[in-house]
Design brief:
The chain is an alpha+beta fold. It has one domain: Alpha-Beta Plaits (2-Layer Sandwich), CATH 3.30.70. The protein has 2 helices and 3 strands, in the order βαββα.
C-alpha cells in the first residue's frame, strides 16, 4: 500500500477471526487492506464493549468497491 494513500475505515469486525475473513475477501479482489485493533487480541479474545473489535482500513479510492463487496457477502 502506498504510504501517501489516504486510508479510510470501511468496516469494524467483532474480532480478529471476522477481520481475517473480511481481509481475505478484499485481498481476493485485489483490494489491499490493513487491520487495526483497539487492543491486543491475546488480551481481548471476544468483543466486550468494543475491546475486541478490529477496524478494516483501505485506500480511499478503494472504499466504495470494498464496501460493496462486504455488503454483497452479508446478503
Amino acid at each position: 500500500m502506498n504510504r501517501n494513500s489516504e486510508l479510510v475505515q470501511i468496516y469494524v469486525a467483532r474480532g480478529e477471526a471476522e477481520a481475517n475473513i473480511i481481509k481475505g475477501l478484499l485481498d481476493s479482489y485485489g483490494i489491499p487492506s490493513i487491520m487495526k485493533a483497539q487492543a491486543s487480541p491475546s488480551v481481548h479474545v471476544f468483543a466486550i464493549d468494543g475491546m475486541g473489535q478490529v477496524a478494516i482500513l483501505v485506500r480511499a479510492e478503494d472504499a466504495d468497491d470494498a464496501r460493496e463487496l462486504i455488503k454483497g457477502e452479508q446478503e
